[in-house]
Amino acid sequence: MTDLSQARWRKASRSGSSNGGCVEIATNLPVVAAIRDSTRPEEGVHVLSRAAFGAFLNDVKAGRYDL
Length: 67
Known about the structure:
Strand content: 15-25%
Shape: globular
Number of strands: 4
């Protein structure tokens, strides 16, 4: 299990009240990135490798998930 006690959470730059987004991320951890719903942080966290998170962000920027 990943220790998240030192995680510094920040709201994702594209997450805002105007679009209903409630995403917080912690990227200060040494090997992983963590993602959670800021309105329900007690319901859990998605933890993934920094490489996988970087690949996901690249795909988002490339428009691979645009509907």
